[in-house]
């Protein structure tokens, strides 16, 4: 027994530990198989140490056999643990497929559609050369062409003023009340996210201890508003062409009055700008080979690195409103998947 204990002590204190990449723990084959190579480097040195070959006595034979049996048991244990690891990965994939069903495929479809549209618009072969499009003619009208224009053309997270976008108006659309064209700003778009689960995520598979999966769910909220949106169409032939323009912007709608009226114009209503609001929930599954009491940080949690300047935040802050005259000094964290403008 003392000989066996001495062999075990020397193995655990002299065999070099095997280092592997983090992602190798979640792939097949198991990197634990490579530990066996480090152990075999010590086998011949320890099994036949202080023995004569051929054996001169029974004591040398028994001593070598005990050591040899120890290493064989060690290899069997390594193979067994490695097999458990490979089996665990296979069962984990099956369980996740049963739990999530087609959720991931659906998410890919949701994201794939917009990406395909962007690819087509950026591809010179499919991108339209002219902003003006054509409609099929009808028995009542000649060929019809139409053109859509928006201000600003590209929505961004930065405010714009009348110097950059002449269509920018103050609240109510009264441009006469502006003493400086740069005093009025327009917030074209607001975006933010909310980590509804919280750090480090919801544990999907706390079993077995060799593998761990966490689920994060992010609410993405996007809002936007055009300062001016118009669609122009014309029909006819080169000798006779008629044109009509449809405009949407935040302003009052007035009509000219007859000369005998008390006022030159009569307000008959108001028009609203075209705006949009969209929310998307994105589930993210993070694998980790560590099993910690409060969860293991994911690969995207860059704040956990000392050399990273990324803060640990559960959400982003956004303006309280979009459109004309935004209050950019007052920002709040989004809640329940909505920007402060809707909260």
Q: What does this 3D model show about the protein?
A:
- This protein is α+β, with helices and mostly antiparallel strands.
- The chain folds into two domains: 2-101, no CATH class; 104-342, no CATH class.
- It is built from four helices and 15 strands.
- The protein has helices spanning 2-14, 35-47, 58-100, 103-122; strands spanning 133-135, 144-151, 160-161, 185-187, 189-195, 202-203, 212-225, 228-237, 240-248, 251-256, 265-271, 275-288, 317-319, 323-324, 331-333.
- The strands form five sheets. The chain has a four-stranded antiparallel sheet with strand order 1-2-8-9, with no helix packed on it. Strands 5, 6, 7 and 12 form a four-stranded antiparallel sheet that branches.
- A hairpin with a 2-residue loop joins strand 8 (228-237) and strand 9 (240-248).
- Helix 1 crosses helix 2 (35-47) and helix 2 runs antiparallel to helix 3 (58-100).
- The longest helix has 43 residues, at 58-100.
- The model has no long low-confidence stretch (mean pLDDT 70).
- InterPro entries: DUF7286 (IPR055710).
- Residues 322-343 are annotated as: Disordered.
- It holds the Pfam family DUF7286.
